[in-house]
């Protein structure tokens, strides 16, 4: 085999490999967008407690509930060393932009359960670093809210004790678990915090 032929064969092999990799990447991204648009949050949150559905609408008129994908504010978690944008909703298209606010939960700062979700391979890839007692700050148009972490736990994807109403201003953060896992992760990593200050 000539040197010229070997170079041609190597270039052709590299081109085919890159092309296949590109197709796989596009296909995976397309699948995530397709599956995310089919459901609202079921891929990233524990099982929904259906007694919770609609309770936010009873607390606020329809026109005060932000539209899907609307920017709500930011969340700062010291142990992650970053500030992340929060958007309304938990479809895959919304979570691709940052942290998602579960639409059937109250807005940050309100008395009850504020539920946020994010991808385990992007915004919450290091959520396991969060410590009990750590302070998490959420800033929205309504003010700044400081929460203190009181619990961390790992639950199954069908756990119905996470997304439930609470009697005080509570923050629940959810992501899929294990953090490194191919396919649909079977569990959820949950961080719970209580509101301790409002500015």
Question: In terms of topology, how is this protein built?
Answer:
Blueprint: H1 3-38, H2 55-59, E1 71-77, E2 82-88, H3 92-95, E3 99-101, E4 112-117, E5 135-140, E6 143-156, E7 169-177, E8 187-198
Parallel strand pairs: 2-3, 4-7
Antiparallel strand pairs: 1-2, 1-5, 3-4, 5-6, 6-8, 7-8
Strand content: 25-35%
What order do the SSEs take from the amino end to the carboxyl end, as H and E?
HHEEHEEEEEE
CATH-defined fold name of the largest domain: Sortase, Chain: A
Total of helices:
3
Q: Gap between N and C termini, in Å?
A: 75 Å
Total count of domains: 2
For the biggest sheet, the summary is: 8 strands, mixed, barrel
Question: What CATH architecture of the largest domain would you give?
Answer: Beta Barrel
Low-confidence spans: 23-42
The count of β-strands is 8
Structure report:
There is one protein chain. The protein is globular and about 40 Å long. With 199 residues, it is an alpha+beta fold. The model is unreliable at 23-42 (pLDDT under 50). The chain has helices at 3-38, 55-59, 92-95; strands spanning 71-77, 82-88, 99-101, 112-117, 135-140, 143-156, 169-177, 187-198. The chain is built from three helices and eight strands. An eight-stranded mixed β-barrel has the order 1-2-3-4-7-8-6-5.
């Amino acid at each position: 085999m000539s040197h010229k032929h070997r170079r041609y064969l190597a270039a052709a092999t590299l081109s085919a490999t890159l092309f296949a990799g590109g197709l796989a990447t596009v296909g995976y991204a397309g699948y995530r967008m397709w599956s995310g648009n089919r459901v609202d949050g079921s891929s990233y949150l524990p099982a929904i407690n259906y007694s919770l559905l609609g309770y936010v609408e009873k607390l606020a008129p329809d026109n005060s509930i932000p539209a899907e994908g609307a920017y709500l504010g930011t969340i700062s978690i010291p142990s992650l060393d970053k500030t992340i944008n929060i958007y309304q909703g938990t479809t895959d298209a919304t979570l691709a932009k940052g942290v998602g606010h579960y639409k059937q939960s109250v807005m940050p700062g309100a008395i009850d359960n504020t539920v946020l979700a994010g991808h385990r391979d992007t915004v919450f890839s290091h959520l396991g670093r969060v410590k009990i007692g750590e302070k998490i700050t959420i800033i929205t148009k309504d003010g700044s809210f400081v929460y203190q972490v009181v619990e961390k736990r790992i639950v199954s994807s069908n756990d119905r004790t996470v997304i439930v109403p609470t009697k005080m201003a509570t923050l629940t953060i959810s992501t899929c678990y294990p953090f490194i896992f191919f396919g649909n992760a079977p569990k959820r990593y949950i961080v719970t915090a209580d509101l301790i200050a409002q500015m």
